[in-house]
Amino acid sequence: MALGGRMVITFVGRRSLDTSSAECGLFWELLAKSLEDMISKRLNWIHSTYIPYYAPHIEEVKTIIRSEGSFDLDRIEAFDVDWDTSEDYMDREYVSDKLKSGNYVAMTLRPACDMVASHFGIEEMNMDYLFSRHAHHVGETELLAKDRPKHHLLVLCMSKK
């Protein structure tokens, strides 16, 4: 990157400083339940698959960028986005169609998982089955009945020193 060049990055973070908070793992725990469903169908490749995931707190990001020293952090913002952005939530604090919402949420994760499966050469994985189970688990979660789950996004603007 050229000196003074700018970069904007958006990724999922977390609100809490506690790395074990529910906001860090619920989305992935529901996918894990779907993978367990596949294991019960004797798809044993999953035992050797590891997909690392970490959602940093905004202060961690600031500290790392400043200590690394290659970039000036021009601006950093955090905001929340509903898991399901397809539904009209005006005047509602909960999800009205949990099955539809579960399917929408599952499909937002599928492109990343398709890439992982392809990268590892996993041919026996039935992605349609996995994500139909994931949609079911998302739709079933109690969180949708009483809340609108959100991703906590961090947006950074940095320039090269």
From TrEMBL:
GO molecular-function terms, A-Z: methyltransferase activity
Highest taxon listed in the record's lineage: Eukaryota
Pfam families in UniProt: Methyltransf_7
InterPro entries, alphabetized: MeTrfase_7, SAM-dependent_MTases_sf
Gene3D superfamilies, per the entry: Vaccinia Virus protein VP39 (3.40.50.150)
Protein name: SAM-dependent methyltransferase Erg6/SMT-type domain-containing protein
